[in-house]
Amino acid sequence: MTDETENAASVTEQGKGPSKKAMKKQAKEAEKVAKKAEKQVTSAQGDGGDQPDISEGRYGVLPLITSIEKPDRTLVRIGSLVRTIVQYCTVLLSYTVQYMITATQLLFEQRQQHFSVQCLAMVSASVSKQMVKFLSNVTKESLLDVQGVVRKTDQKIVSCSQQEVELHVEQAFVVSAAEPVLPLQIEDAARSESSLEEGDGPSIRVNQDTRLDNRVLDLRTPANQAIFRIQMGVCELFRQALQRQGFVEINTPKIIAVASEGGANVFEVTYFKNSAYLAQSPQLYKQMAIAADFEKVYTIGAVFRAEDSNTHRHLTEFVGLDLEMAFHYHYHEVVDVIGQMFNAIFRGLADQYSEEIAAVNKQYPAEPFQFLDPPLRLEFKEGVAMLREAGVETGDEEDLSTPNEKLLGKLVKAKYCTDFYILDKFPLAVRPFYTMPDPQDPRYSNSYDMFMRGEEIISGAQRIHDPKLLAERAALHNVSLDKIKPYVDSFRYGCPPHRPPP
Amino acid sequence: MTDETENAASVTEQGKGPSKKAMKKQAKEAEKVAKKAEKQVTSAQGDGGDQPDISEGRYGVLPLITSIEKPDRTLVRIGSLVRTIVQYCTVLLSYTVQYMITATQLLFEQRQQHFSVQCLAMVSASVSKQMVKFLSNVTKESLLDVQGVVRKTDQKIVSCSQQEVELHVEQAFVVSAAEPVLPLQIEDAARSESSLEEGDGPSIRVNQDTRLDNRVLDLRTPANQAIFRIQMGVCELFRQALQRQGFVEINTPKIIAVASEGGANVFEVTYFKNSAYLAQSPQLYKQMAIAADFEKVYTIGAVFRAEDSNTHRHLTEFVGLDLEMAFHYHYHEVVDVIGQMFNAIFRGLADQYSEEIAAVNKQYPAEPFQFLDPPLRLEFKEGVAMLREAGVETGDEEDLSTPNEKLLGKLVKAKYCTDFYILDKFPLAVRPFYTMPDPQDPRYSNSYDMFMRGEEIISGAQRIHDPKLLAERAALHNVSLDKIKPYVDSFRYGCPPHRPPP
């Protein structure tokens, strides 16, 4: 056990833990609170009675942390506890998960984000019976400060992320105690639908409303911890891909004076003595940034849609990732940039977020995401042909219904082995007034949607950047020119051709 | 001139420009539009008359770009036109700025974001009189596609960003024409207040309302182009500094059910059949993320304040950069992280955005920003003492007025040579109910503000993470417990001590 001794020595050098004075004070306080806690929670168990407590000052409930001092202790994350580094350590604050109690020892699990480690508190020369008992009464989801020796285990601990080591506890304080009755158990909230259906475990299902009413607990599941990190990853990879291409990040107004897209599905805000609206998209502002010579811009921010439907495609508020760029000759310059941006995100997630994806898959199993490089681009006509071949009746200039989108996603996946593809050249009739018509065929337009697993995730088009043509098309669509004047005017002082995903 | 010939040859290999067919079509169209344009704009000037046009097909107004083809031309940015690389090139779309016309030649300036280059169109074997005349009639702020030879100039061109070269134009097309009368001139909008006051140039001042009514033009000034890029830089450096420390980016709801901070200064939204509110800060959500075991989070997003005041400190909507982190022993762990984050932003801006800062300084002169590493931290008491020493009467537990904040900024700058400092330990009485009292002196609190040039830019405190103490303090502040129940409840299931800038 040489290396253990060495490590213990080096840790002593790094910092011995709280100062003696503070320890004493803590111990006193802890003892007081612990006694109170014990009174409340102990029941039939025999306690240490009047025996002197050899662990005094090494466990208990910490007083409320009010920033009195800064002890010089080195704190270790659970995720970094691995078998090659056997050491004495203090674990960064972690949540207590579950217990197994035998006569003289207590096994419990501590969790930190999506990492967890098994802890062992065993009556010994330094650990008292009272201490083991105190720890066995700590409520689940309480926050602990635990110190001890990291040891290799004989068997893999399958329930924990750190499977090869366990922590032999020598000191443990409750930093923040959870109430004894939790509205939901993390392990229930983390259970997969398939395991519930197969009945190979407890069959407690946590409903959506219980989750949302207790979001703080629900977010402690490994899948939710991972989803938040993947969300961050998507934004980060989006930015990186676009910054490499010289894009400038902008922020666009959310409270706007005019309900830009005709007034449907827009939230109204009481703006002092007037009314204002919440922006349904940053579209007009992005385009004005292009006319203002920013050339390539992107924005990440809240968008608002007053859609009173409860589907996963209808949210009243979400975070939009949006871009707009000037091009020279052909809107495919932009389509290519967006396609490559998606591939960079797909690749980046697979490379940098594999642990998080695995955590999500454990609760929500899914096949690995497939994509082609360069991405597949089909014309709308080709999509219609594939649907017809599969027996679907759909018109040449008819928009895709949601079921048809899903079916086409499956047909494309079967034929081309990709979960991501671009559908180009939509019928002009089904797109907004500002969409540039296809110069070769007036029934179609310079517009496209992109799909992931049969769901549209982005929609875009070359915008009409000529004020005269824009006014003509607006009139055809019965869009009042008065209402879109600042938008049309922004093209009057020189504007490059451009396009975005709205 | 060997290198020029070589470069011309190599460019020919890379791509000759548009295909012959397209060129012919363009030329035809251009000629037609150009003729029309000439008719409209020429007046007293003599024209080429019936002489054959040797430049036919090399100038004119391009037809509306509807994505017909993708010519294989290599495009060059104005910012990359430097004297060491003399070459034949096509400049990426750029805006026409201003002219100087002599008998046979035309000097004009092309601008691209904050870069500009002088262009020369001179009657020659390849440039016709008609072409020079056509170009001299292009309206300012029109978007051009210009091709020519880059040559070193004899004298520095002080009006342009590219001072050592000019472009000898051989081909030029109008991609998007600006209207002849502009609501404001870019050079007027870019003029500094001091140059207006000193009267060392034209004295046209562009008013704020003219700017805002014509934001697309106003944003073409070098200072505004730079400000947008610096804004991006601040967000980017903020993210980088925090990601290095393991922070997770989150997004928080903007439409909320309850007016969280007492209902004052909050915008009301009509939410279907109910009312909702716009979030005044992401605070409660950040804290709930900490209670949900994210440990360190940040968010960048819109915040809304219904403040009907027209000062630069009162905006109804702005982008907030916000963070929250758990700490172990002392809220100074967090203060240190924030201080270092600010220093990383200051350093990053100076290193990576010096060109942009110079562009802003040209219109808005300012001294270089000074800061200390580590940042200066003063206690509130010390600040009060400095103010009193300067003759200001202020109470021990009185909040700083705006004039006192400004004065203290000047005193600190004079004494410590820093534009950035932290003022720690504010009186408890002037801070919100959720602020942790100072454990050593109940008149003060574990809270602070940070200042740049005498203006508060961030405000923070250790939050009370104990539900009982929180309820007590709320009662003292007359905050109804009913209204903050979900917030208080989020501390009931184990929560680390934490603090944020609200």
Describe what you observe in this structure:
Chain A is of the alpha/beta class and 502 residues long. Chain A folds into three domains: 3-63 and 70-176, Beta Barrel (OB fold (Dihydrolipoamide Acetyltransferase, E2P)), CATH 2.40.50.140; 186-220, no CATH class; 226-489, BirA Bifunctional Protein, domain 2 (2-Layer Sandwich). Helix content of chain A is 33%, strand content 23%. Chain A contains 15 helices and 18 strands. The first copy, chain A, has helices spanning 2-14, 20-41, 129-136, 186-189, 193-198, 208-213, 215-218, 222-244, 283-291, 332-352, 354-363, 380-389, 402-416, 467-476, 485-489, and strands spanning 59-61, 75-76, 88-101, 105-112, 115-122, 143-152, 165-176, 248-249, 255-256, 268-271, 274-278, 296-304, 317-326, 376-379, 420-424, 447-452, 455-461, 498-499. In chain A, strands 3-4-5-7-6 form a five-stranded mixed barrel. In chain A, strand 10 and strand 11 (274-278) form a beta hairpin. In chain A, helix 8 (222-244) packs across helix 10 (332-352) and helix 8 (222-244) packs across helix 11. The longest helix of chain A has 23 residues, at 222-244. The radius of gyration of chain A is 30 Å and the shape is elongated. The termini of chain A are far apart. At the A-B interface, strand 3, helix 7, helix 8, strand 8 and strand 10 of A face strand 3, helix 7, helix 8, strand 8 and strand 10 of B. Strand 10 of chain A pairs antiparallel with strand 10 (268-271) of chain B, so a sheet runs across the interface.
